[in-house]
Amino acid sequence: MRFSVERDVFADATGWAARHLPSRPGLAPNALAGLLLAADADSATPGLRVCAFDTEVAVRAPVEATVAEPGRVLVPGRLLADIVRSLPAATIDVAVDGDRLLLRCGSVRFTVPLMDVADYPELPRFPTPIGEIDTLGFAAAVGQVAPAAARDETVPVLTAIRLEISGRGLTLAATDRYRLAVRGITWQPTVEDPWALAHVSAKVLAEVARTPTPASRIVVGLDLSDPAGARLGLAAAGRQTIVRLIEGAFPNYRKLLPDTAAYTVTAATATLAAAVRRVAVVATRTAPLRFTVSDGQIVAEAGDGTGAQGRETIPVEYTGPELSVLFNPTYLLDGLGAIEDDEATISFVDADPAQAYARPAVLTGKVPGGPEGRPGSDGAYRYLLMPIRTDPQPPAAPTAQPAPPASTS
């Protein structure tokens, strides 16, 4: 194999593919630590492809290259990416020399031992395309929903974003049982009756969403009948990401989202988020942030009663009884940070003010229709947050306990 390639495009492709190598190489076959380089001079799309696979996610990146001799080699992945990134901005000449890969760039020369390409598994094919989606819209929706997915893998399906695919649009949902984020977006299906459900790794979707691409549309592929496992494919500007779907029963989140709100609070999103961020500096696990809502204001407080304490008053639109509720400040900031409107609404579900501390709140953009309006509409971003429960008449220095998981039945 022998080809020439510009350093910048080669570094971009190898760096992107290397991010999808197994994060714990000792637990994966040795061959999967390599990047597969496939050079073709005679096909309809001559050039170079850089591939990576960790058994769950496969990626392919096309690279413009001048191929003198076609071939396929397997190279230690992270090492190759580091070497290419370190080279000067010039043309790189790459060739196989026995059992090593030789890279020349100006006066710089590297040789890298090759791995046995025969040990590399066959990459999954890209699933059958079923539609296209706006790149920026998809990235924004994933960015809003992904923070609510679980981080640990105790229940694998909770680390996923649920994609509900239909002719009307896509709905993305994620939950770690203490919070729930939902967002609907439009798309352009290319098949009839494209109804399907897919649970896709939130980590993988977030990586796809934040990767820059010149493509304005992302091609969506789906294969639910593959004997090796159902897979979703996303392709933009020639780069393909193929991810195995996560199995499991996702919580019935729709019944958790209320149709109406008993009380709604509207505030400037940036002002409220800044106040929460400041007061949260002194918040701890046993005494998180407390919201006391009364006419025209929220008082945000944090501190354990014996050490540092913080307090700030935020002007809001609210008329009603006094409400007191405790929130995890990190979870609250995740929700506020995802709201695209300049005004945020916090909807309290329970009509009994004394029970506000124990019932979920729903964060959205400004709700049309006033206090009787629905807390978020179909397609709008909705973020349901379980408060941290305490005794409804807490002592001076309460000990807060985490809220139990939201029902999954």
Q: What is the makeup of the main sheet?
A: 9 strands, antiparallel
- Total number of β-strand segments? 26
Name given to the CATH homologous superfamily of the largest domain: DNA Polymerase III, subunit A, domain 2
Helix content: 10-25%
In the CATH hierarchy, the third-tier topology of the largest domain is known as DNA Polymerase III, Chain A, domain 2
| Count of structural domains | 3
As a percent range, the share of strand residues is: 35-45%
Structural Rg? 26 Å
Could you state the oligomeric state of the chains shown? single chain
Question: Strands, helices and their partners?
Answer:
Elements: E1 2-6, H1 7-18, E2 34-40, E3 47-53, E4 57-63, E5 66-69, E6 71-76, H2 77-86, E7 91-97, E8 100-105, E9 108-113, E10 129-134, H3 135-145, E11 160-166, E12 169-175, E13 179-185, E14 188-189, E15 196-201, H4 202-210, E16 217-223, E17 231-236, E18 239-244, E19 263-268, H5 269-279, E20 289-294, E21 297-303, E22 309-315, E23 323-327, H6 329-338, E24 343-348, E25 361-365, E26 382-385
Please tell me about this protein's structure:
The protein is of the alpha+beta class. It has three domains: 118 residues, DNA Polymerase III, Chain A, domain 2 (Roll), CATH 3.10.150.10; 123 residues, DNA Polymerase III, subunit A, domain 2 (DNA Polymerase III, Chain A, domain 2); 131 residues, DNA Polymerase III, Chain A, domain 2 (Roll). Helices cover 15% and strands 38% of the residues. The protein has six helices and 26 strands. It has a nine-stranded antiparallel β-sheet. An eight-stranded antiparallel β-sheet has the order 15-11-12-13-26-25-24-19. Strand 2 and strand 3 form a beta hairpin. Helix 1 packs antiparallel against helix 2, helix 3 packs across helix 4 and helix 5 runs antiparallel to helix 6. The protein is elongated. The termini are far apart. The C terminus is likely disordered.
